[in-house]
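Re: beginner question about structure tokens

> Can someone show what the tokenized structure looks like for a real chain? I only ever see the sequence side.

Sure, here's an example I had lying around. Input first:
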Amino acid sequence: MSRLEGRRILVTRAEHQAGRLSRELASHGAEPVEVPAIRILPPVDFAALDEALRHFSTYGWALVTSANTVNALLARIEELGMISPGSQAWSTMFGPMPKIAAIGPATAKAVRRMGWKVDLIPEKYVAESLLQTLGTKLRGQRVLLARSARARDVIPDSLRAQGIEVDVIDAYRTEIPHESVSRVRELFAGPAGKPALDAATFTSSSTVENFLNLLREAGQTAPPSDLPAISIGPVTSKTLRAAGWEPAMEAEDHNVDGLVRAALEWFSR
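And the corresponding structure tokens:
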């Protein structure tokens, strides 16, 4: 019998992204309980993004930090009716593509689906590892960083401290799906707010912060510290700790597969 057999595990990813994690958990006998803590939306203003896309070939490097960013770039390219960067027609008209650094394999896969070449993936899928892997490659280059409007400033601050010109562009923004409040209230309706769950999974700092906001809106004043929180990586774990919720496990590989392995390890104890 699988260590996850019959376990009810909370999945807090955005609705359009939850499927794979839920399927992987279900394949080990778990019951995924999807309560989206995050919704992906377009930026408030497209001006900076449009300008960056129209002058894409002027950048030496483009740093892409999530599959959501890639999807947002593709959607905007299609909305503008642009030739896809990386195509032969683009190269003929505008010149070579910038080199692409993707923060992890899921992001790299999304980049390749667009027909773009991935030139660099860091060993660990966090901003600090991306900076370490890039090393001095960006010196003298103009750099585009496309990301969420709520992202940390570790990358741009570090690059600017090295004298590197970097344009930071909001490719998308996130919000809390307020329809999830009633579902959270339902799940935490037991005695003393005890949840009808065996563990909760978190794939980003935003899912942690938004889920805590959902809890507050549902009448829960403190994190459910007796509910094991399984984190995708160190940045997410740091956000959990800052809220007073010590992670039960942190994935060694900062992706969906690593998160599922972390859940399996936790329930083997």
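Each token stands for a local structural state, so reading them left to right follows the chain. The first strand starts at residue 8 and ends at 11.
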